[in-house]
């Protein structure tokens, strides 16, 4: 579905200005080994290109790796996940310094950077691979996720109920190399210019986080 949307966007706005010129695209540091205080969190919220940019923009996050999680198929790839038959969702594995950014802040950023009421899609990206999932590794993380859902629900943030899955983490499969840091490597791609970057700028304006 994403490839189809890229073609539509390209035909509609191939000559539009690049918004990527207005800010520095944050990238991850892939070469540093896990530090003493480094922890890992895993989220799915639609296109993983978007998710990489969201989390890597936050102070305390070293890297966000695109990949697949939440399914029942060993060694999935982009084509099999896009078919909808593996059960996986496009996911990011977030590596962060727990002394600089907290897990509750990451969870808040996760919900703030998507519409968690959309079932099996985000915007025009449609399919179970784009569903919203907050993966937890322990009971505390589960409680943090559920507390944020309750807070947003009680505040009547959305007209519709939140449909984000709260799921125990099992296995993460990194995506193909060409998906990693896709936005920073392809800032003038039509989908990036007209979908990914505007979504990120909207998130950055709304979220009261500590940005790089």
UniProtKB/TrEMBL annotation:
Keywords: Oxidoreductase, Signal. NCBIfam families: msrA. HAMAP family: MsrA. Has an important function as a repair enzyme for proteins that have been inactivated by oxidation. Catalyzes the reversible oxidation-reduction of methionine sulfoxide in proteins to methionine. The keyword Flavoprotein does not apply. Belongs to the MsrA Met sulfoxide reductase family. Residues 41-191 form the Peptide methionine sulphoxide reductase MsrA domain. This is Peptide methionine sulfoxide reductase MsrA. It catalyses: [thioredoxin]-disulfide + L-methionine + H2O = L-methionine (S)-S-oxide + [thioredoxin]-dithiol; L-methionyl-[protein] + [thioredoxin]-disulfide + H2O = L-methionyl-(S)-S-oxide-[protein] + [thioredoxin]-dithiol. InterPro entries: Met_Sox_Rdtase_MsrA_dom, Met_Sox_Rdtase_MsrA_sf. Its EC number is 1.8.4.11.
């Amino acid at each position: 579905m994403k490839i189809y949307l890229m073609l539509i966007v390209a035909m509609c706005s191939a000559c539009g200005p690049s918004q990527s010129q207005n800010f520095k695209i944050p990238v991850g540091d892939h070469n540093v080994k896990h530090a003493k205080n480094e922890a890992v969190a895993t989220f799915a919220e639609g296109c993983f290109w978007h998710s990489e940019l969201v989390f890597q923009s936050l102070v305390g996050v070293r890297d966000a790796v695109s990949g697949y999680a939440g399914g029942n198929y060993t060694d999935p790839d982009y084509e099999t996940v896009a078919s909808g038959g593996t059960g996986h969702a496009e996911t990011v594995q977030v590596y962060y310094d727990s002394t600089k950014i907290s897990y509750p802040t990451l969870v808040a950023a996760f919900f703030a950077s998507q519409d968690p009421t959309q079932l099996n899609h985000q915007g025009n990206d449609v399919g179970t691979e784009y569903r919203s999932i907050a993966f937890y590794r322990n009971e505390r993380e589960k409680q943090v996720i559920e507390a944020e859902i309750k807070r947003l629900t009680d505040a009547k943030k959305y007209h519709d109920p939140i449909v984000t899955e709260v799921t125990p983490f099992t296995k993460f499969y990194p995506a193909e190399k060409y998906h990693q840091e896709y936005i920073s490597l392809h800032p003038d791609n039509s989908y990036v210019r007209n979908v990914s970057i505007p979504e990120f700028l909207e998130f950055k304006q709304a979220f009261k986080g500590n940005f790089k």
